[in-house]
Description:
The chain is an alpha/beta fold. Helix content is 52%, strand content 12%. The protein has helices at residues 3-6, 10-19, 21-35, 43-55, 60-77, 85-100, 129-142, 157-170, 183-196, 213-230, 248-260, 279-286, 308-315, and strands spanning 117-122, 147-151, 174-175, 201-205, 237-243, 265-269, 291-295, 303-305.
Amino acid sequence: MGFFSKLFSKEKKETLDKGLSKTKEGFFDKIKRAVAGKSKIDDDVLDNLEEVFITSDIGVETTLRILDRIQARVARDKYVDSAELNDLLCDEITEMLAENNIENGEDFAVPADKRPYVIMVVGVNGVGKTTTIGKLAYQFKKAGNKVILGAADTFRAAAVEQLDIWGERVGVPVIKQKMGSDPASVAYDTVSSAKANNADVVIIDTAGRLHNKKGLMDELTKIKNVMQKVIPGAPNEVLLVLDGSTGQNAFEQAKQFVAATEVNELAITKLDGTAKGGVVIGISDQFKIPVKYIGLGEGMEDLQVFRKEEFVKSLFGK
């Protein structure tokens, strides 16, 4: 067990197992049907597995990569019993994901040389963006950081109100202006306040509309430019929030936002209410952008730093 695995507590594992229970049940049932009556992994099993992965929202490209790895393993080991399939899949998917992204570090840690650490959060309405911001604020504060939120989604009154509620709930200040204000102005006020008050973490909410790409790019670029006048290099993270329960729609949203702005982290929410948790594997594999957080329930503790090895182990009941 590696260093980062040691950071994964019993409580976190229980939360992960519970959050992935619907996905795990559906996934296992499909795999059992794929190998029913088979004594070895042959072409029929591989064809059946292809259908399992695609219908589990892992995605076509990632499915083909997994099957290539399984075929290479079977050829190398000469004979692989179908009873060993779960172990084989767990090993190969874990190794495949490990090749793509670096492992996330200590949970909710802030680099000492990057304070205030600025996170700009993007994503369409309804994906759990504001809730994710509230949970992030809670987790960063719990880790000993001073946190400030910025309500730069000024196009919906409800967005500012929701962020206000989370700010009160967590006990962190929310910088806001009246509805319809310039989002960049709110972002500027937020980072200025953070710098003046020696905050450790700044989290900026942005409009949850999927604009045309140019409109989205222009707006987010303006927000970034004004923040950089106060804090050079801001934002440190552009975090795209995706709803895992939407399956392939999450892939499409990721493509749209990645094309429109410099997304460098992903959060995938609502995994506890769906059997589509396989989307995390596909998105983690296909986009060369780390999945940093996963949402596994309504509680503030139910947002976790994504750890590939632990995620795959949980999915396969290990």
